[in-house]
Input
Amino acid sequence: MFGMGWLTKCWNEHQERVLLKKHRDAQLKALTQAIKDKDHSLVESILASTEGLDKFKSDNYDELLKEAILTDDVNIFEKIFELAKNPDPNHIFHWHSPAIPSAVSMSSSRNPLLSTALEAKAGNVALRLANDPRTDIYLTGSYDRHRYHGGGLLSSGYTEHEKTIYSKASVLAEKHGLNEVAAVLMKREAADLTARAQSFTLS
Output
């Protein structure tokens, strides 16, 4: 038999989890709005007052980072970017369609941080990433689709796989009219080609 003390302890722990979830949900809503408003001091204040910040950051990092990109405010972007334990300019955003057992088609995509900024036409953020020597400027996004075709009485079903590779960063920058970003990226590409040519000559 469980005593009243144990039941009370379980109930109190449950209530604490409920209250913590409500707190984090409210903080996420407030922080998202502060990011959209480009309110630097409020962003810092909300983060400072969030309980269980490490868990909060890991659970909501991608969502907040995308919102920061959309502001095209480099300072806001930096604040959110630095929330990761090891901020990575080559961070990948992953998306998967819901896993439905009866589904005949499933899709997924991966998109690098720089490409995401370029697609959003966030020129300031994209320029900051393009100038970061750690950024892999050749990293591209991709889209995968797996479609199942059922078989008949005399044939078995099969899965069709379609994969689309998106354009590299310099092409995306030109496509979206981000000329300053495109110039930086093409300069880096030219420097890479020169370094490879020199390496080949020396070898």
Q: What stands out?
A: Residues 1-86 form one domain. Residues 109 and 143 are 4 Å apart (CA to CA). The longest strand covers residues 105-112. The beta strands are 92-96, 105-112, 142-149, 158-165.
